[in-house]
Amino acid sequence: MERLNRNLAAKPVSERLGYLAFVLTACVFAVFFVMPIVWSFANSFKPAAAALADPAALFSKAFSLENYRRLEHVGAGWYVYAGNSVLIAAGTVVLTVLVSVPAGYGFSKFRFPGQSLLFVLIMATMMIPFQSILTPLFLILKVFRLQNNLFGLVLIYVTFQLPFSVFMMRNAFDAVPKALIEAARIDGASQATILRRIMLPIALPGVATVAMFAFLNSWNEFLAALIFLSDQNKFTLPIMLVNVSSGIYGIIDWGALQAGIAVTMVPCILLFLLLQRYYVRGLTAGAVK
Fold first, then answer.
1. Which parts pass through the membrane (predicted)?
2. What is the percent of the chain where pLDDT is above 90?
3. Burial tier of 148 (Cβ tally within 10 Å: 0-12, 13-18, 19+)
């Protein structure tokens, strides 16, 4: 803080005012983003009586785990749905990284006929609305007997995650100097060794960014899971939230719903806090050469 104060004191008044305005604006936006999360967590620990007495209150004097206990009786139980979401998200992350890393490396460091056209075609798939191909996807899964199957859902998520992931990894590998590859080749390293021991450690922020996007998209995805899964024991957490909010006779169990939202948010928040440094570096990889 002392160093920051000295730096501000050394700047002109206009720059100091601009910096303070930036900090105040950032704080206001941070409050708007953080408050819904805080409100959801606070309400998930409210007893039903306190929630009915004052629904708008942020905090309550009473503390209860009643809402989380009710989640155990929603369908097969929240832990079953959480396990399904973990399996799907983990499978999506692993397959996305395994495919996008060598693909991005190939597009970045190799030249072959039709390279630009192939890359444009891959990027063009990002412009296809997911809702418009639900029927073909269902028929494909049916042919391979993967309908109502968690692995089939993983394949769908990977398919839609790959264009962005390949783009990110190509940019990450573009930022690595070719001199490193040439030096490794002179030493007799194979392409697999160069990718594993030289390129991957340098492009690790890009890999972390791809993994994070794959996890968040598969963890929070709702429509595909709702359409392609029919067995209640294979549902994911987002589908569980719909069942919680429906309740009996259309009555919404707000306490259990907030508890379900809190359970769903925790892994995303923890993952972002752990990987935020790599996330920012991965997004800017290849932007400046």
1. 20-42, 78-105, 117-144, 150-173, 194-215, 259-279
2. 27
3. middle
DSSP secondary structure string for all residues of 51-80: HHH-TT-S--S----HHHHHHTTSTT-HHH
Domain limits, the chain? 1-67, 76-246
Domain 76-246 classification at class level: mainly alpha
Per residue in 240-284, pLDDT (tens digit) is 888 886 555 667 777 888 888 889 999 988 888 888 777 666 666
245 vs 226, higher pLDDT: 226
Say if residue 81 is exposed, middle or buried (CB neighbours under 10 Å; 0-12, 13-18, 19+): buried
d(CA 158, CA 156): 5
What's the pLDDT at 75?
80
Convert 259-289 to b/e letters by CB count within 10 Å (16 or more is b).
bbbbbbbebeeebeeebeebbebbbebbeee
Of the CA atoms within 13 Å of residue 178, those in its CB half-sphere come to 4
Q: Name the pTM for this structure.
A: 0.84
**pLDDT tens by residue, 149-178:** 999 999 999 999 999 999 999 988 988 888
- Output the pLDDT for position 183: 86
Asked whether the beta carbons of 279 and 209 are under 8 A apart, the reply is: yes
